[in-house]
Amino acid sequence: MNSDAIAAVLPLGTKGPGAEITSVVDASTGTPAPLTAATGTLSVLGVVALGPGNWREAADLQMQLAVRGRRDTTLVLALGSPPPVMMAHAFEVAVDRLGAGNYSMRVRLVGRSSRVVAESGPVFMTVPER
Q1: SS3 content of the chain, % helix, strand, coil (to 5)
Q2: Nearest-CA neighbor of 104 among 123, 89, 86, 88?
Q3: Coil, strand or helix: which one is 86?
Q4: CA 47, CA 52: separation in Å to the nearest integer?
């Protein structure tokens, strides 16, 4: 197995800071949410990890869910001091308040001065006209 293949199977945070969106479900039922016609409230489960290193200066870390599209919004969770090595959180997104259009969501680990330490890949959704 080559080093790229090994890196692909290592757990989040093994080689450094990381972030991922692990699930998007309907907040009222807990069932998978249709992202091509999103409505209601979504529960977006994100995970962030600090990874190996010296995190003494990481007192101001935040976990964020950035929703970008017609109406941008960022949901924020302060991680406290000292921050956990790994954190999972379910952000609730009120889709009906966003307005119709195409959106992307990313979970981020953000440090001092709004420096992005880690960011997930995008998860896309479409909010239909009402």
Answers
A1: 10, 45, 45
A2: 123
A3: strand
A4: 16
User: Which strand (E) or helix (H) includes residue 4?
Assistant: helix 3-9
Which strands form 86-94's sheet, in the order they lie side by side? 18-26, 41-49, 86-94
Full pLDDT tens readout for the chain, 130 residues: 455 555 556 677 778 889 999 999 999 999 999 999 999 999 999 999 988 776 655 668 999 999 999 999 999 999 887 788 889 999 999 998 999 999 999 999 998 788 898 999 999 999 999 8
Q: Chain-centre distance of CA 9, in angstroms?
A: 20
Residue type at 120 in one-letter notation: S
Q: 107 by DSSP, 3-state: which?
A: strand
DSSP assignment letter at 7: H
Placement of tokens 């989040």 in the chain: 12
What are the tokens at 106?
């990313």
